[in-house]
Amino acid sequence: MSIEKSPHDWLFKMIFSQEQNVKSFLEIFLPQVYQIILPNSLKLSDTEKLSKKYKKFFLILPLTVK
Prior knowledge:
Helix content: 40-55%
Strand content: 15-25%
Distance between the termini: 30 Å
């Protein structure tokens, strides 16, 4: 992705592609959510998925958490 074409998207992806940044964001800006999850279970997931009809699609920043 080019920073010139989409600087906001680029910045978001650069910051939130690191698990620690996501944890910090949740803790500071969404403390209610942070309290009900297991922060150490947060993991970045694969960005490529298949639909029920076996069509490939991509997620921007998929995360899993317990």
